[in-house]
């Protein structure tokens, strides 16, 4: 298996990190990979905010308990979408999801761990993070990605694939008959 496929298949959600800082150049590469994601109509309706200040990340996690990994990681990226930049505003979450996946796979390729802490589409989560951060309008917070070196030396491994064959249908006969 080539390196790209190995990184894709061994990427795991990492929630425990060492205190070692992520080099700026690695963050720039990770962000560049994210910004290379596909988007509907090529509109790229996203914005990335980089948070290295632990105090700010702690304030966010105090409001959103499932965000604890952003405190433990040395850096976190807030991914926001801009619905007004889209041809069809409903597609911004799909575009931000593609960007997020690119970021997490790029982090894995540099032996960095990551975990995505979800915000959108839950309106309460969007409002909750806005109580801590003054996110500019029209940006909508999508998720926050914690990034750092995993504490565990066995953090990266392939997922258990039991039952996956039932999730794939080859050449389905799902076409409805023509109406006459």
The helix-strand sequence is: HHEHHEHEHE
- Tell the overall outline: globular
CATH superfamily descriptor? NADH Oxidase
Instruction: Note the main sheet.
Output: 4 strands, antiparallel
Helical content class? 25-40%
Q: Could you name the ranges where pLDDT drops below 50 across 5 or more consecutive residues?
A: none
CATH class: Alpha Beta
The average pLDDT value, as a whole number, equals: 94
Q: State the secondary-structure class.
A: alpha+beta
Number of helices: 6
CATH architect. name: 3-Layer(aba) Sandwich
Q: Strand portion, in percent?
A: 15-25%
How many beta-strand segments?
4
Task: Give a structural overview.
This protein has 180 residues and is α+β, with helices and mostly antiparallel strands. It has one domain: 3-Layer(aba) Sandwich (NADH Oxidase). 34% of the residues lie in helices and 16% in strands. The chain has six helices and four strands. The longest helix has 18 residues, at 92-109. It is globular. It starts with a helix and ends in a 32-residue tail after the last strand.
